[in-house]
Amino acid sequence: MSDDYRDPSGNTEAFRAFTAREEAAAPSVAPAAPNRLPLIIGGVVAAAVVIVLVLVFALG
User: In the chain, what are the domain boundaries?
Assistant: First the structure.
């Protein structure tokens, strides 16, 4: 590692400047909303399994 490199975490002022530069360079795209379709499908399947098991035990 060269002697010219300064670790920004070694100095509070340098670290704040480093993080401000990183935030400014980051794109300002909003994160996508989580897809809940797998959760809904899983809930429907679980409910169907419970209903089938209740019917099997009640009628069997």
Answer: 8-59
